[in-house]
From TrEMBL:
Keywords: Heme, Iron, Metal-binding, Monooxygenase, Oxidoreductase. Belongs to the cytochrome P450 family. It comes from the Bacteria. SUPFAM superfamilies: Cytochrome P450. This is Cytochrome P450. It comes from Cryptosporangium minutisporangium.
């Protein structure tokens, strides 16, 4: 991170180890002006109390025409077209739209509804582990396990054909990270087309899965427009896997670098649910871009923020705030960390939190059980992180299974 008088710039070294920069920011500039890799200035919030407060601050909004125009000015109408096509979802909506959209699918994500998925999640994990057991000793754990597990779960839940997984996995990867703008826009457009076709094809035979229910609701446009149905499918598909992949991937990486923590989990698997919370706190999948917009003058952490500004709440920085968590940089699977902000807070608190927790619990329990000698197959500093301000995740995770 480089600093000028007023701004900080998030560069490539930031992705490799954001926690060092976060520590500095929390201490020196808890409400900082930062230039993102997109080139736009934003306010970055890094302390736990400020972050939690900002996430429930009614003067901070999700829906902003100003921001859409800014993106269009910078990237041209192509990007605007695809983003508009898939952006009418709850995560970029304010009440009352947010309330209506969330309610439509909320029932499917309650603790009880999700608990009923446990046998199927166990089965998917077991099938992946069987395949790993029958295959080579050295694998990329992301490819073999951390990616296919949540993707299969969310595809089945929504009713999205499994054969299309590779396509939307690659589009969604491209959309969520910074790279060549043309590739980015093309991936977005392909994803928007795919989802539009998927939703439209369901108009004939809705089916009894979640996508069917969404399409049926969109038959009654008072409930949901076609545009909102497509956006809902986009959000659930992308939020439903990009994050959980990294809970499993980064969590496993953390364990393999902390043998005493790994030994504690192996000795007492009942610690796994608590360990999942600690992985989320210590290096969670959504690190920076929990975005909000000011529509009126606002004060955060004693700093005046004018209207029409972008505010990013760094959940990862907040989760390592030493004022909230003693020894915050230490990974401790016995820590009671459930008050972390890795799933956000307030009305946009992650709808899929119960599902992600269950997938994490099953994934870690069964992986450790099946491969007692699991080990990292690279030097930790050889591994690279995805160049994204939204998702924190490894590019690959080479392991030896036996
Ligand atoms: C919202 C994190 C898994 C669906 C959020 C937010 C965070 C988050 C931080 C709030 C963002 C904000 O306030 O700006 C995570 C993490 C996950 C995970 C860390 C895995 C470990 C899932 C899964 C689904 C899901 C499996 C399933 C479909 C959603 C949805 C929202 C959301 C629909 C929007 C909620 C709203 O706007 O009311 N998630 N998520 N997430 N998440 Fe997750």
């Amino acid at each position: 991170m480089t600093s000028s008088d007023q701004y900080l710039r998030l560069g490539p070294e930031f992705y490799a180890d954001p926690h060092a920069d976060y520590a500095w920011l929390r201490e020196e500039r808890p409400v900082a002006r930062v230039i993102t890799p997109l080139g736009n200035p934003v306010w970055l919030i890094t302390r736990y109390d400020d972050a939690r407060g900002a996430l429930t601050d009614p003067t901070l909004h999700k829906d902003s025409e100003e921001f859409r125009q800014l993106m269009e000015a910078r990237y041209g109408p192509g990007r605007r077209t695809f983003e508009d096509a898939i952006n009418a979802h709850m995560l970029s909506a304010d009440p009352p739209s947010h309330t209506r959209l969330r309610k439509l699918v909320g029932k499917a994500f309650t603790g009880r509804a999700i608990a009923a998925l446990r046998p199927r999640i166990e089965q998917i994990a077991a099938e992946l582990l069987d395949a790993m057991e029958a295959g080579p000793d050295r694998v990329d754990l992301l490819d073999a396990y951390a990616v296919p597990l949540p993707i299969t779960v969310i595809c089945e839940l929504l009713g999205v054909p499994k054969d299309d997984r590779d396509d939307f996995r690659s589009w969604s990867n491209t959309i969520l990270q910074f790279g060549d703008e043309e590739t980015h826009t093309a991936a977005g457009a392909a994803m928007a087309r795919y989802l539009t076709d998927l939703v439209d094809a369901r108009r004939e035979h809705a089916g009894d899965d979640m996508l069917g229910a969404i399409v049926q609701a969109s038959e009654d446009t008072d409930q949901l427009s076609r545009h909102e149905a497509i956006s809902m499918a986009f959000l659930l598909l992308v939020a439903g896997h990009e994050t959980t992949v990294n809970l499993i991937g980064t969590g496993t990486f953390a364990l393999l670098r902390h043998p005493e923590q790994l030994a504690a989990l192996r000795a007492d698997p009942a610690l796994v649910p608590g360990a999942v919370e600690e992985f989320l706190r210590w290096d969670g999948p959504v690190h920076l871009a929990t975005v909000r917009f000011t529509t009126e003058p606002t004060v955060i952490g004693g700093v005046d923020i004018p209207p029409d500004e972008v505010v990013l709440v760094s959940l990862s920085a907040a989760n390592r705030d030493p004022h909230r968590y003693p020894d915050a940089d230490t990974l401790d699977v016995r820590r009671q960390a459930s008050s972390h902000l890795a799933f956000g807070h307030g009305i946009h608190h992650c709808l899929g939190a119960a599902l992600a927790r269950l997938e994490g619990e099953v994934a870690f329990t069964r992986l450790l059980e099946r491969f007692p000698a699991l080990a990292l197959d690279a030097e930790p500093d050889e591994l690279t992180w995805r160049p994204s301000t939204l998702i924190r995740g490894l590019d690959r995770l080479p392991v030896r299974l036996r």
